[in-house]
Every structure is written in C-alpha cells, then in structure tokens.
Amino acid sequence: MSALVLAPDLKRTARVGPEAGEASSYVDRLVHSPKDRRIESTGLAEAIDLHVIESQIVPVPNPRPATLFGSGKVEALGTFIAAHEIALIIIDHPLTPIQQRNLERAWRAKVLDRTSLILEIFGRRARTREGRLQVELAHLSYQKSRLVRSWTHLERQRGGYGFLGGPGEAQIELDRRMIDERIMAIRKELEVVVRTRELHRRGRRRVPYPIIAIVGYTNAGKSTLFNSITGADVFAKQQVFATLDPTMREVRLKSGRRIILSDTVGFISDLPTTLIAAFRATLEEVIEADLILHVRDISHQETQMQARDVELVLNDLGIDTVTADSHILEVWNKIDLLSPITRDEARSAAQWPEERPVPVSATTGEGMDDLLAAIDARLGRNDEILDLIIPAHEGRLVNWLYEEAQVLEREAMETGAVRARVRIAGEKKERLLAQVRRAGAELKVLMPVSA
Questions:
Q1: What is the reported pLDDT for 165?
Q2: Which residue has the higher pLDDT, 420 or 430?
Q3: Concatenated DSSP letters for 174-213?
C-alpha cells in the first residue's frame, strides 16, 4: 500500500492531542528533532511493508483543533495525495477522532496517527498467543477511547427487541458494550498468564538464579546482544519492534554464577499508555529483575533522547533510574559504527568503576567479555571469599565448587586433602554450608567481596 509520512513540527509548548495525558507525553517527545522523527516514522511505516512514496516535515505554527494543519496546508497536501494516488497517510502526532475524521474526508484516504501505527506494528509482530492477546487488549482500549464523535454512523439507533419495542440502543453504546465484553474476556485470559509467570518466577527463586532483563529503545540491538551472550537464535533484524514476545536463556558466568537473561520488547518515544498497560504481564520480568541492562545505540545521533524515553517508561513501571541504588547497567552498543576517535572517547568515558556504561558491539563481539565481567561484578556485591580444606575422598564437593562457584586457588596437601580458595555468591552460601557439613570439610570465611 502506498503511504505518505508527515512529521508535524510544532512548537514545544503546543498541546494538541486526544487527552491532556496523551498530549503531555508528546510535549516530552518534542526534544527529538523533526528530522529524526520523520526518519523514525518512515521506519515504522516500512516495518509493516508500506511503500512510502514520500516523507515530509510539516511546520505547524498554529495547530488547528479541527485538522491540526492549516487549511492551506491541508489543501496542498490533498493535491499531492490525489496526484500520487496515496491510500494511507501517517501523521507522527496524536490526533483527536475529529481531526482524523476531517483529514480523511479532505484527503479521501485513510489516516493513521502515531499510536495507531505502533498498535498496527505490534499486531503484525506478536507471535505467541499471549502477545496477540496483549496487542488486542491495547487495540480495544484505544478504540474504545475514540468511539465518541469518531464516526457519525455510530449515532444511529437500533430497533428495540421483543414485543415491547422501545427506543432501542444507540450503535455507539452497542459497540462500547461489545468492546467492554471482549476486554473483560482478554483480561481473564491474561490473568492466567500472570499466574503462570509468577509460578515460573517462584520456581526460579527456589534455584535461585538472578534475572537479568535487557531493555532499550527499539532497534538498539537488544536481541543481537541476547544472541551474542547466550548463543541463542532469537529473531534479530535491523527493524523496529522485531521482538515482542519475551525470551529467556540460562547463562553461566566465569565466577560460576548462573543467571537467566531475558530479552524484552523495545521501547519507543511516545509509547502508547495502552500498550504499556497491556504488556504489563510481560514487563513484570523487568520489574522483578535483579539487574537491568539498558542497551543504547551509542552510534545514533539522538542516543541521549532515546535513553530518556526508555527511562520515562521504566519510571512509569516504578523502576528507579536515578539514585545510586538503581540496579541498571548501561550498555553502549554499536561502537563498531563509531569513528576510531569517537570509539576511543566512548571507551575512556566508560572505564571503571563498575557503575559506568560498558561499550560493546553485539555484532562483532567487541567488549562482550567486559560486559559479562561487569554483570558479574554488579551481582557479586554480596559474594564472599572462603578457604576450604576438603577431605581427599570428597571429589564430589570439589566438582560442586567448580560448577557453582569460582575456584580462585587450589592446592593438594601432603595428607591428600585439597585446600581451595573460592568465591561464592551470597545466595549460594547456605547450599555450600550444607555441602561442607556433609563432606566434613573445614571452612574459613576470609572476607566479603564488597569489603
């Protein structure tokens, strides 16, 4: 389908949207340049295989409540649309139902605003039943909010039922009731998903393995990073919202610590609140995570603004992104796309201490060892270093240490016993003590790693 992409260039104080809450998020998003928004919107359109005839930045000095654009601009765009037989116009801005209806009448073509386009992409990308239910819930919630004054045919009255007759039911009320019923049905199904995820989390807590959630702006390279760390084959493509359904894999670090790495849906500026709400069951993996990897495309010209958009979503989820206690580790991805000078600057800016960002290239593998070491260090703040003397016949305990801990030193004693110095995760200490008691080994606590 042929499409035209329009990126309105409004003043930062402009507030034209369906609801004050939706408009306010757009005011925050205006820190992105019009050029970047035009490029991003074009990418969103191409993500669902639309043929973009042209994309334009449209100055809007005085937003109009009826059409957003001025009458002259509406007429000029209408001439262009008719001449090129464009069937779909995408506007990178929230539209009220009246604005959408008036523009469709003026241009005789379908009009989608940014929220509608993102919902459409999510509908195409969802692969699992859970993902499809979440997208449908977001679609219905958005559709319900736009029933009022959206289409005149919704004002028609339906005839009464039964012998009593009566005024009947307005079509708009019938549509709203049907949407409400479907929303309730979806929420019941998703409640089962939430319970299932909670059971899985309880199972993981019993192991327990730390959960590491990967988040970031869409197309920042999260799935490529996930594949690079885990050796998995998660769908990864230079494409917005390539991943919607969460994927988890177990990874073992050099310390012997096992972690569960979770790849999640990408964020984007002005992400519809209906989507955040619908995907909350999935995003709970982020909320519950022991450590969050915030992957940034450090080569992108608006990487700072993208990072801010991600932090806004995390804040909406109740995740602290500001204080020193924040459990977020920034990963500066795609350093292979930087010039040599800029790459060196990124490396020097991201040196230890461990709270600082880690520069990597998920594609080439550069910096991946540093990233795994940083993850280990952040998770290892409660680790302890222990000295053990293990009886000669207790090879089972030695094997356990190599599987579950990091063996720093090992020495065979004249008696045949083994002296070992190990680093053990805090959450595994009780299990180690049980192994020591069973084996009759001697144990001495040297120090906590954080000391």
A1: 40
A2: 420
A3: HHHHHHHHHHHHHHHHHHHHHHHHHHHHHHHHHTT--EEE
- For 356-373, how does the pLDDT look when each residue is reduced to its tens digit (9 = 90+)? 889 999 999 999 999 999
User: What distances in angstroms separate CA 281 from CA 277, 284, 287, 386, one per listed residue?
Assistant: 9, 5, 10, 40
Greatest distance between any 2 Cα atoms in the chain: 102
One-character DSSP codes across 10-60: E-TT---SSSHHHHHHHHHHTTS-HHHHHHHHHHHHHTTT-EEEEEEEEEE
Q: What is the average pLDDT across 266-280?
A: 70
Residue 138 CA to residue 357 CA, distance in Å, equals 34
Helix (H) / strand (E) element for 429: namely helix 429-439
3-state secondary structure of 105: helix
208 versus 335: the higher-pLDDT residue is: 335
Average pLDDT of every residue of the chain: 79
Tokens standing for residue 279: 């995907």
169 three-class SS:
coil
Check for a shared fold between 2-121 and 383-448.
no
Instruction: Spell out a b/e string for 371-382, using b for 16 or more CB atoms within 10 Å of the CB, else e.
Output: bbbbbbbbbbee
Domain residue limits, the chain:
2-121, 126-154+170-207, 209-380, 383-448
**At 132, which helix (H) or strand (E)?**
helix 129-145
| Of 269 and 104, the one with more pLDDT | 104
Q: Residue written as tokens 């954080």?
A: 450
What per-residue confidence (pLDDT) applies to 323?
67
Pick among 3.40.50.720, 3.40.50.620, 3.20.20.140, 3.40.50.11060: CATH of 2-121: 3.40.50.11060
- Contact call for residues 204 and 281 (beta carbons, < 8 A): no
Classified as helix, coil or strand, 168 is: coil
Q: In whole angstroms, give the CA distance from residue 77 to residue 89.
A: 10
The pLDDT score that the predictor gives to residue 365 is 92
Q: Which two tokens stand for residue 205?
A: 């807590």
